């Protein structure tokens, strides 16, 4: 009976197609960060801090768990919202929602960038604003919430954090930003190209910067650990600018 009750409560909010309400749940999420438990403190501890402090655990295992929890919750929301879409389309939309740039923006918006514990070297090298580090920390925090309070609590947190992203995704087409931008350019006979403007970092942890141009004019700049990720981000920003300008 208890398990059935949990399922009913979880499935009822939000209904398919609706953007989840974020207010109270978002405040509760921030409260967790402001008064962290031991597990939450671990989620906010980068490996560089743990290495320097000794005898302190880092957030890598929680990040592994949180990645899976986040993927499950977002997949469920998409499954509910788009009952007629094939698996491939849903996978692309999920990838866009949980991409590194998306998670990093959310982590910054809720103050994870200010609360994460970094080693001295990582701090000096700008780690507090590094997208990959912030995305991992957010996933670790979600992993901690799941372990402490279960899937319902993690779902409430994700629904609050992704309120705006859900709203945008649920209103728009399922196709990825690059595909939509290509369709936009083709419909107007505009020249479209992506240019890698920077590639830096070690081979195991590169960072790419890509600009997207329409008729030679830069419309978006994206960054990511993969060239494809940076291109998708650039395309998404270009679409936002074009939509805002009514082009």
SSE order and pairing:
Elements: H1 2-11, H2 23-34, H3 38-43, H4 47-53, H5 60-81, H6 87-97, H7 100-109, H8 112-115, H9 120-124, H10 131-161, H11 163-171, H12 177-187, E1 192-200, E2 207-214, E3 217-224, H13 227-245
Antiparallel strand pairs: 1-2, 2-3
Structure description:
The chain has 247 residues and is mainly α. The chain has 13 helices and three strands. It has two domains: 2-171, Ribonuclease iii, N-terminal Endonuclease Domain, Chain A (Orthogonal Bundle); 177-245, 2-Layer Sandwich (Double Stranded RNA Binding Domain). It has a three-stranded antiparallel sheet, with helices on one face. Helix 7 packs across helix 10, helix 10 packs across helix 11 (163-171) and helix 12 (177-187) packs across helix 13. The longest helix is centred in the middle third of the chain and has 31 residues, at 131-161.
CATH topology of the largest domain: Ribonuclease iii, N-terminal Endonuclease Domain, Chain A
Strand content: 5-15%
* Strand segment tally: 3
Percent of residues in helices comes to 55-70%
CA distance, first residue to last residue: 55 Å
If classified by CATH, what would the architecture of the largest domain be?
Answer: Orthogonal Bundle
H-E order: HHHHHHHHHHHHEEEH
* Average pLDDT level: 85
- Count helical runs: 13
When the domains are counted, the total is 2
């Amino acid at each position: 009976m208890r398990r059935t009750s949990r399922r009913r409560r979880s499935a009822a909010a939000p209904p398919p197609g609706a953007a989840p309400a974020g207010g109270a749940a978002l405040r509760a999420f921030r409260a967790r960060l402001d008064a962290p438990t031991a597990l939450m403190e671990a989620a906010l501890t980068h490996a560089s801090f743990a290495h320097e402090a000794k005898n302190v655990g880092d957030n890598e295992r929680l990040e592994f768990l949180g990645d899976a929890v986040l993927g499950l919750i977002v997949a469920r929301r998409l499954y509910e919202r788009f009952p007629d879409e094939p698996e491939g389309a849903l996978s692309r939309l999920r990838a866009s929602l949980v991409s590194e740039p998306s998670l990093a923006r959310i982590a910054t918006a809720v103050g994870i960038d200010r609360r994460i514990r970094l080693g001295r070297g990582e701090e000096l090298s700008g780690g507090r604003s590094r997208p990959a580090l912030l995305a991992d920390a957010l996933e670790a925090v979600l992993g901690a919430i799941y372990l402490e309070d279960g899937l319902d609590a993690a779902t409430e947190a994700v629904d609050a954090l992704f309120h705006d992203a859900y709203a945008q995704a649920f209103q728009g087409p399922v196709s990825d930003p690059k595909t939509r931008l290509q369709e936009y350019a083709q419909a107007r006979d505009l020249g479209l190209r992506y240019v890698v403007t920077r590639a830096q970092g070690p081979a195991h942890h590169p960072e790419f910067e890509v600009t997207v141009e329409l008729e030679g004019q830069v419309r978006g700049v994206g960054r990511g650990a993969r060239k494809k990720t940076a291109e998708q981000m650039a395309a998404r920003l270009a679409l936002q600018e074009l939509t805002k300008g009514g082009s």
